[in-house]
Amino acid sequence: MADLVPHAFQRHVDVDEAARLIRLTPGLVPLAIDPAGAGRVIWGDLGQHPFREWQYIFTIAELARAQAIGTAFSCPVDILDQDDLFADSLYPSAFIHHVSRCGSTLTTKALARPAHHMMISQGAPLQRGFWALITQNWQHRAEPTPTVLRRLRNLVLAMTRRRVGNERRAFVKFISWNVVYADLIAAAFPDVPGLFLYRDPIEVIASVKKETTAVLLTKGTAQGAFLSGLPVDIGKKLSDVDYLAACYAQYFEAVLGCKANLSLVNYRDLGPNSFTQIIERGLGLFPDDHERLEMLEQFRYHSKDDNNASRFEDDRKAKQMALTDEEKARIKMRCSDLLNQLDHSTRNLFAPDTRLRAVTSSETFARQRQ
């Protein structure tokens, strides 16, 4: 972030001046949290540019390249203790948690289709900075103290400030490993429903081997020990496949043991035929016909192509064939029982007794619309 918006890191103001600037400038939102020392929040004025890129950081990067980020500065993290600053922000309608490479981007892009929907997709301040700050770089557990919950709540609300003027709903997609904090997040927002999207870890890891993931950067660190449940020295020696399997098993265990209001959806059950049911039953969101058709349109396209120039193709079979039998056996040993528990959970929207198998093919959807 310092490379994208260097002037935000170079100008540091006190809390009173930061509050004044935030009140004057609706476009000011948190760009990052620097966890060093007592912590500071990095702010930038994004104006009325809507979050339409598939990740929060890509919106910031696009505006930075165009030199379109206005007022920028840093201030003490104490700014997040001022509830009144963010009282007019959009309160989140739903949270999206996920295991990675499991349709979460498709889901968030679909939810973001209506112009009056705001989507915070893996907000940069929540990717690492906030959690590193409250755990002193993962030296202790994140405790849901009143201060932590207030600051988390205000950080999210600072990102969901009304900047365009027509926003009516806001959704927040967390980075995959944030799901281990699902209960803490729910304690800050007890009335916000959420989805946990997941997929066979064999397919997830096959995808990650082709296109890497930020989680691999944590191997051999204190954060990596937290995510994998393994001591640093042991985790550091693991292959990427075994390290990722350990992390995903931790995610699954966190979801199975959490008390947060999460509905579960396996990737195989996510498609245009099931999406309306997912958002109605899982998120309590009942779109009108126009909104629903806008959202379903996303299923025609590759979700990580912001230009909608490429089509989605089902790659599950290819993913299953991308790993060796030995690698798949090791993943199954660690994750298969947990995966089965997720599939049969009473919180799963498509558990076997009520399963409505989704049609994930975009070609099928296109035929249905003709």
Automatic annotation (TrEMBL):
UniProt superkingdom: Bacteria
Matches recorded under Gene3D superfamilies: P-loop containing nucleotide triphosphate hydrolases
InterPro entries recorded: P-loop_NTPase
Protein name from the UniProt record: Sulfotransferase family protein
